[in-house]
Structures are given as C-alpha cells and as structure tokens.
C-alpha cells in the first residue's frame, strides 16, 4: 500500500478526506479501511455511493472493492435483499445511495465510507444526515474518497477542523494500471485544468477564480544561482491555537519573483509559529520578514523578536480583501513573471480557490500574495536607486 492509502496516524481527526486522481487507488484505500474496522470487532458501518449500483459494483464487489481484499473462504457475504455486507463476526456494512438523503435518517453507525463525494447531487444534505448517524462507539469516524471538483461543499469539508486531507496523483498507483494509460492521458491532457483535477487530484479553480491551472503549470522553473532579495512573508493565525500560519519564502531577480518554499504550519502556539518563521528566515538568509499585522498588531513583531528573528520585521496592514490584494499578483502570473522553484500542491490549491465561494482560509496563498507584492509591486519592490552626479 502507498502512504496515501493508509488512514492518518495523528490523533484527533473525525473525517479522512482522500482526494485522488482517476486510478490513484482511492477505492482500495476505502475498502481496506472498512474491512479492517469490520474485522477488529463487531461494528455497524455505512457505505454511501452516488447510487446503490455504485456501492455494490464498485465499493463492495469491484476489482478494488471490499470483497476483493479477502481470501475466497473468508470474504464477507452480500445480502442483496437487505443491502448489506456481513462479516463472520457479525459486523455489517449497509449500502446507501446519495440520491436518497433521507434514507440515512434513523440508522446509526460506528464509521462510514463515502465514495465520489463530488458527484453527489446534494452532497451537504447527504453528509449532514450521515453524520447524525455516526453515534456509536467512542470515536465515530468518516472516510471520504473522491476525485475533486471545485464545488463549495468540498471546500467547506476541507476547511473543517476535524478533517485530515490526503492527496494522491494517479502516477502513485501507476504499477497497478495499464502501461499506456497514464502516458496517453498525460500526452493528451498534460498541463491542463482537466489533468490537474482528474490525474493529480487537485481542487482546481472554480467560478470567479483569480489564478488558472495553466498559469501555475507554466510557472514551474529553477531557482537562479543568485537572488537580489529574499523575504519571508507571514499570514499569522487569527487565534492562539488551531489555525494555520501561512509562511512563504520568495526571492527576486531580474524583475521576476521566485517562490522558494512553503513553510506553513498549523496548530502551533504563537511561539511555535514564530519559531518556524525564524527558522525559514535563517535557512534562506532572508533580508526581511514581512508579516500581516491586522490580526495581532505589535504582538506579531514581539513574538518574532522573542524567537530571535534574524531579519528585520516589516508589519503590513491589509486595507482590502484577500481576493482584491491577489488580483495584481495573478496578473504577474499571467505575464510569466513568477516562478515556482518546487512542487507546492497545497499552496497552489489555495491559490486556485482565491475568488471562489467557500473553502478554508487561504493562509498559504495570502502569504504568497504578500511576498510577491512586497518584492514586485510598490516602492518596496524598486530596490536601491543610483543617482548620477
């Protein structure tokens, strides 16, 4: 099994969201998770698919379904009349269709697996009814496997505090696919929005998005040997614990910005995220730390000083919305003047959501906007001037 096919190891999660490309092994991951739970002890489980046909043909009896995991003499038994899968120890997994949200009223479960969430016609209605039924056992949990689409319901699910997100590109499961499948689709769709969504498992831009997949794909490049200036931009969390602190390192050379690293951290105290900022500044020999001060004001500067920040701290005050601040930066991407020196899937996913409704706070993307704006726009981007005498 690949790492993305194993449930999160960190404690405290209520929903495991696996976003994967076509053929990335999402169904196998869900099947293993359900089968493992069913064999540990006697439990009631829910299987929810786009339709009952999908539950049986894909989740239960498909090539990567639950029944395919076990040896022939040890497979759970499908009872078509009661639409349930039975294990020898008495565990049962009941099939439900996302076409009928009300069918989930009444039953109760220890855990549930929801497949292809993004093609459900009423995803939030089904999800809410399902969650009201997760009331058995000490810690009921939900696994959601889907190829992503830029729908508000998915963005809101990703934003929930108890959600842990894993991503899986189709290429990670290439050894289990037809030899020519991936090569052909990459040749035809490589670099497009469709490829990012269907092969890489990324949540691409939706209506109103400021950044486009094509612009981000075109932004791939190498770091120059020398940079004129390097800064660390920080979007501090709004609360002392739990929220993400966006930390992005960027440099400038020849009127172009280079994104060097995404050091974003989550769930740390002010001292914890300040230490991460200072570590990034030291690692990249930054000449400045630029931090948004709307949330914490001078507190932001003070915690950075207490962490022995190696670079001067410039406090930035936002007078416009995140989307409005991002518009001139998006234009720089269209002009090919920003280069990503590495793979930053979580950062790019937030960028693709800027301007769209719903979804998590774009902490990484906001830090990037501050970094590029500071380097490329306004007086701070002009650099030293030479006067002729």
From TrEMBL:
Pfam families recorded: Terminase_6C (PF17289), Terminase_6N (PF03237)
Domain of life: Bacteria
Lineage of origin: Bacteria, Pseudomonadati, Pseudomonadota, Alphaproteobacteria, Caulobacterales
Membrane listed as a keyword: no
InterPro entries: P-loop_NTPase (IPR027417), Terminase_6C (IPR035421)
Transmembrane residue ranges: none
Gene3D superfamilies, alphabetized: 3.30.420.240, P-loop containing nucleotide triphosphate hydrolases
Residue stretches making up the Terminase large subunit gp17-like C-terminal domain: 233-373
Protein name: Terminase large subunit gp17-like C-terminal domain-containing protein
Keywords assigned by UniProt, alphabetized: Viral release from host cell
